[in-house]
Amino acid sequence: MLSACGASEKINTFTGSTMGTTYTVKTIGDDAASQQKIDDRLIQINQIFSTWDTQSELSVVNQQPVNEWIKVSNELFYVLKTAKEIYQQTQGYFDPGIGHLVDAWGFWR
């Protein structure tokens, strides 16, 4: 038998759609989560990382010449830095630059 400490807390469920899929977020208790806050954050994430939106930060970076410096947000820098570290740790088996190959294979059509 399993039991939790304290009284039973309210479970809040938030659902929506973004980035071509749906999401469900569940929170416990009376925290500050709201549908609007969740949607706003997912919009921010999409504006940074979308590969479909040609104006997203990632898309703009990908359109730049190879040896040209460009200022990026802390979030994008962190993800790119982490991807590079994983690429190095896996000796290239994890390759975040595989997009052109995926396009050539015809995914996303």
What does it look like?
Helix content is 40%, strand content 15%. The chain has helices at residues 35-49, 57-62, 74-89, 99-105; strands spanning 11-18, 21-28. It folds into 2 domains: 9-64, no CATH class; 73-108, no CATH class. The mean pLDDT is 87. It has a two-stranded antiparallel sheet with strand order 1-2. The longest helix is centred in the C-terminal third of the chain and has 16 residues, at 74-89. β1 (11-18) and β2 (21-28) form a beta hairpin. By secondary structure, it is of the alpha+beta class.
Beta strand %: 5-15%
The neighbouring-strand order within the major sheet is 1-2
* Count of discrete structural domains: 2
Q: What is Rg?
A: 19 Å
Tell me the distance between the termini: 49 Å
The level of helicity is 40-55%
* Spans where pLDDT lies below 50 across 5 or more residues: none
Structure, briefly:
40% of the residues lie in helices and 15% in strands.
Key features?
4 helices, alpha+beta, 15% strand, two-stranded antiparallel sheet, 2 domains, 109 residues
Task: Describe the SSE topology.
Layout (H helix, E strand, L loop, with lengths): L10 E8 L2 E8 L6 H15 L7 H6 L11 H16 L9 H7 L4
Antiparallel strand pairs: 1-2
